[in-house]
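Re: the 390-residue chain
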Amino acid sequence: MSHKYLALVVALTLLVGCTTGSGATPTPLDTYIASTSEPLIASTVTAISTSEAASDSLKAKVDQVFAMYDKPDSPGCALGVIQDGQFIYKRGYGMANLEHNIPITPSSIFRIGSTSKQFTAAAILLLAEEGKLSLDDDIRTYLPEFPDYGTPVTIRHLLHHTSGIPDYLRLSYAAGYREDDYVTVDEVIAMLASQEELEFEPGEEHRYSNSGYFLLAQIVQQASGKSLREYAEEKIFRPLGMMNTHFHDDHNEIVPNRAIGYAWEHGRLRISMTNLDIVGDGGVFTTVEDLFHWDQNFYHQRIGDPQFLDRMLARGVLNNGDTLDYASGLIHGTYRGLKTISHPGGFVGFRAEMIRFPEQRFTVICLCNLSVTEPTKLAKRVADIYLFGE
């Protein structure tokens, strides 16, 4: 059967599914799909074959994408490909630990950098459900050490990167700190609170700032009486069965099965890790297999009230009414005409991407332990193979 014919079948199936009354209650992700304006370019999408021979052929193509990392002397990546609620491919490429010759597997634990932000946002939204905070609260309610800027900076501003608070990492680097220097939470709060002016009036611009999500972690602690790690474990990770996931707020903690981060330096591979105990803007340790459960929560919700996912996916809005692509730790986008929801991450020797194609119920998770890897490009190449037959 030709790809063109298969694509026509997929298009007709989607059309029938959207126009006939099935009686099923739409999920928040269905609502997002229906509410966005760009139509699916169905003629370009290839149906994913379920035959064993075709599946093996697709896997072989995917293996070629990661071939440069699939060696016993190289760091690499863990990959998960999800379709209709199940893994259709998962495997590791390269080594989790070069010193002890430990290969990467789908159960290897990686730091995922800013891909962590969606979990911080989820914690804030769950606290709002509990009535312990409001997204329109002035952050000084929870962080009284911050000055009065004239116009309140709200929790909502932090969620959407519209606060005007400068990025603490940029401030740290400007002050001479390096990625492997030790800086405490209190020192970062003091650094930010000492800034007498914002970079812009809250709500006037969208400027990505790790400070916002770092401060959200402190607000979680003030509002709940628990650290972000404790609250997320209780309300998010444990209920979803993400038993190998946590916010890593103790850099001396032993984490079995973790991958080591690496970077090239002067032509040699070197360990690239951090001493920071700071979480919120990053800091989640997790696996491809655990992230499957988070992905499926967007189709079969298990945490939060019925509006929780709608709030996760709600885009930020500037003071002038312009709507952002940035929601709550998630970014709305398109790839080759298909709608996507994603957030990349990267810190020290780790890089991560989790990109969801909600209309296709297709997700690619790519977690890497080498700083020069580009998991967003790698994940899109995997999507090219499965969704576009390339």
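Residues 1-26, 31-43 have pLDDT under 50 and may be disordered.
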